[in-house]
Amino acid sequence: MNILVVGSGGREHALCWAIKQSPLCDRLYCTPGNAGIAEVATCLPIPAENIDDIVAACHSHKITFVVIGPEGPLAMGIADELRREGICCFGPSKAAAAIESSKGFMKDLCAAAGVPTAAYRRFTDAEAAKSYVKEQGAPIVVKADGLAAGKGVIIAQTINEACAAIDDIMVKKIFGASGAEVVIEEFMEGEEASFFALCDGDVALPFAAAQDHKAVYDGDKGPNTGGMGAYSPAPVIDDAMQDRIMKEIIHPITAMMKKRDCPFTGVLFAGLMITKAGPKVIEFNARFGDPETQVMLTRLKSDALALLYATAKGMLDGVEIHWHDKASLCVVMAAEGYPGAYKKNTVIHGLDAAAAVPDVAVFHAGTLRITGGDIVANGGRVLGITATGTTIAEAQSRAYQAIDKIDWPEGFCRRDIGWRAVARIRAA
Description:
By secondary structure, the chain is α+β, with helices and mostly antiparallel strands. It is 32% helix and 28% strand. β7 and β8 form a beta hairpin.
């Protein structure tokens, strides 16, 4: 098969890395890709949101199968357009992708399906939203309804913080049109985890669980980001918890989507809070996570391309997924200033030395190779240093050993990725 992966981040590099290993893969393309992806795939200089040009490229390069990485093109309807052109693809329709592109839609869907989630209200008027916050008290959660690159959720510890967040989203429009509506939720206590299921419209198959670190600084301090690191498996999700998640969350939500004529095909990513009462939904995403993909695919023993293709073709019934008996941990290196304004075009040295550390993969996200051969930073989250080991602690040690070989003064990372899992191991 000739494969096209859409996207340019660490998630897409990991997908290309895994797909390239499949005997089913003949030629591998990526649009637009990055400097790391260019080492395993032919990169086409087409933005991920340029659907017409992507469809044209599929025809000209005789693409058999398209794997869509980011949420933006999905929300725009890229999967619908590809299918109209007779091109098989992995990813949900625009209607189904609304489970991520509209938090209000997602919350209403959970309510209809009886899926456990935080109590909520939706608002299109800032003053009404602030009045509700004052009635409810704090802590409380304020969410922009639309896509905001993982940054549209504010956990407000005080009423003043919540009101300021509402003003930022709805009045100052820091997330643009995504903030035309807000969802105000109760604050849930527990341990967060990410759970992924492959869904072919009828069958939902558990894939894997991971835990990420959204806050930018050590100790889970500072503003939320797209993710500063992750590890898998997630100790908080054992076999019994996985069964509950499938029974109480994944199966009811996919059944409700099919009932509403927007069956979900692709990977359903449930952001969960594991509370004392059980798993509750924080959010759903309509695609693989980043950096969760990096840690899940480095653990995957089964053929990744075969799994993605079976999902797209509605052939998951009877499929089994096999995993290596090891843990994986990814540390994101970001450009100085991220998640705010950050420096670009700074040169990164030492990548080969980092990749030479045993059981380490260096996944690129925001990188560019310039004339002369140097790799430079070209985004906020730039690298995902991913290591495997017999335990999360061992994987953590290897990842930071590799990071210490990278010479990039304008970059930074958290030094405590995996702390919760390592503490759990030490306490056992």
